[in-house]
Design brief:
Helices cover 2% and strands 48% of the residues. By secondary structure, it is an all-beta fold. The chain has two domains: 336 residues, TolB, C-terminal domain (Neuraminidase); 84 residues, Immunoglobulin-like (Sandwich), CATH 2.60.40.3080.
Length: 453
């Protein structure tokens, strides 16, 4: 039985000598007026290469925001989540100026997806060649992120096209991670001879990155269990039988039978994870050896710090919470600069003046004046309490996450005046255990480990 009135922890911050280090995130607008940018890549020319879902491919100068349209695809079909999606550039671009693109098109009443390759002539894209076609598409769950691996093969994430059973059908290209040679042929070492299928059991993966031989992917869950996975050859990731971890009897049986790979992070309530990058640079040392994940529904950047094996998440930080709206993609330049694209014109967001936009993020560690007093009380009888003193008016919010990264609770208190405040918290749904509490006060963030008894 859980204790019904257990004081968990009380923390007092702000004695005369106290201070705390905080990461201050600044945002510089690079480009505005975009229409649902889906992919942002750092090009070999030092420009940002961008797809927009309606069918436009552009180069954008990262300093001036100058935009040069290099292709407009006339046969792109955009409705709901479909349209022009992922893009990848050949790693030896000077010798092989190939641009790989995924988009949906319509054949009668069918929505289909194809992977194509263009050649860049220094000004425009031409010589389109279809590498893979007639992947099932729909107005939702179309994937589709592209990634070229160090062995010069192409990974492609596909959604289940709103038919969950396709994810377990090895004869279908939907609900998979696919692997192709760069000429569209099937690699000889794919797990199923003659098939592009590399892994199966995916619902709708929209993030893909690689570092040190490990491929990471972000994936949308249904109404629970968004995921970050490590993608491995021939493995099953469980959908639609398994959502998130193998933690129900039915899921455990299926996981044992199919040797399902569990995620390294999962979120309930869902956050709608999208673009994903591995951050290896020391330009922002606080983020080195972390995954940078942008989210649509949760409208934030999530930084997932990895352990030395790079296979386990050891901490999670959130930035830009609600500041820019829905975030579709993140791009890291070779020297560690970080760019983020919004997705407020995708039909599910609330466009702001200038949307959609691409911004650059910079982080500095600075001394932040401590609050004079913060106290936290959490129990499992449904009564939680947050008490604090504000030295100035500010917006206040509190978030709890369990130590696996699952989001347990959110509270938004609005803008509060200077002075003392006490907020009652509904905590009856919290299970006993340890949580990471993140208190947001204006642009400042404070972290504390709390225990629910």
């Amino acid at each position: 039985m859980l204790a019904r009135s257990a004081l968990v922890i009380a923390v007092v911050v702000g004695v005369a000598t106290a201070s705390c280090n905080a990461q201050i995130l600044s945002v510089r607008t690079v480009a505005t007026g975009l229409d649902t940018p889906w992919e942002v890549l750092w090009g070999p020319d030092g420009w940002l290469w961008v797809t927009e879902r309606a069918g436009r491919i552009s180069r954008i100068h990262p300093e001036t925001g100058q935009q040069q349209v290099i292709a407009t695809l006339g046969d792109v079909y955009e409705q709901g989540e479909s349209g022009l999606l992922g893009m990848a550039l050949h790693p030896n671009f000077a010798d092989s100026p190939y641009v790989f693109v995924a988009y949906t098109w319509r054949d009668g009443s069918q929505i289909l997806e194809r992977i194509v390759r263009f050649t860049y002539d220094g000004a425009t894209l031409g010589d389109m060649r279809i590498l893979l076609d007639r992947i099932p598409g729909a107005t939702i769950h179309d994937g589709c992120r592209l990634l070229i691996l160090p062995d010069h093969t192409l990974l492609v994430t596909t959604g289940d096209a709103n038919v969950p059973s396709r994810a377990q059908d090895r004869q279908s290209a939907a609900g998979k991670v696919l692997r192709l040679n760069l000429d569209g042929t099937i690699p000889a070492d794919n797990p199923i001879p003659g098939s592009p299928v590399w892994s199966l059991g995916h619902r709708n993966a929209q993030g893909l990155t690689v570092f040190g031989g490990i491929v990471y992917s972000s994936e949308h869950g249904p109404n629970s269990d968004d995921e970050v996975n490590i993608i491995e050859r021939g493995r099953n990731y469980g959908w639609p039988t398994v959502m998130g971890y193998c933690d129900s009897p039915t899921e455990r049986t299926f996981c044992d039978q199919e040797q399902v790979v569990e995620p390294i992070a999962a979120w309930t309530p869902t956050i709608a994870p999208c673009g994903l990058e591995y951050y290896a640079s020391d330009r922002i040392p606080q983020w080195q050896h972390s995954l940078l994940l942008v989210t649509l529904k949760a409208a934030r950047l999530v930084v997932l710090r990895l352990d030395s094996t790079r296979r386990r998440v050891v901490s999670e930080q959130h930035f830009l919470v609600g500041e820019l709206g829905r975030l579709r993609d993140v791009c890291v330049s070779p020297d560690g600069r970080v760019f983020v694209a919004t997705s407020n014109r995708d039909g599910r967001g609330t466009p702001r003046s200038g949307d959609d936009r691409i911004v650059e993020l910079t982080v500095a560690t600075s001394e932040v004046p401590p609050l004079r007093q913060i106290s936290w009380q959490f129990s499992t009888d449904g009564s939680g309490l947050l008490q604090l003193f504000l030295p100035h008016a500010a917006a206040v919010g509190l978030e709890l996450a369990d130590l696996r990264g699952g989001h347990a609770a959110f509270w938004h208190f609005g803008t509060c005046a200077e002075g003392s405040h006490a907020f009652q918290l509904e905590t009856s749904h919290l299970a006993r255990g340890a949580y990471c509490a993140m208190l947001t006060i204006g642009a400042e963030r404070y972290h504390q480990l709390v225990l629910v008894h």
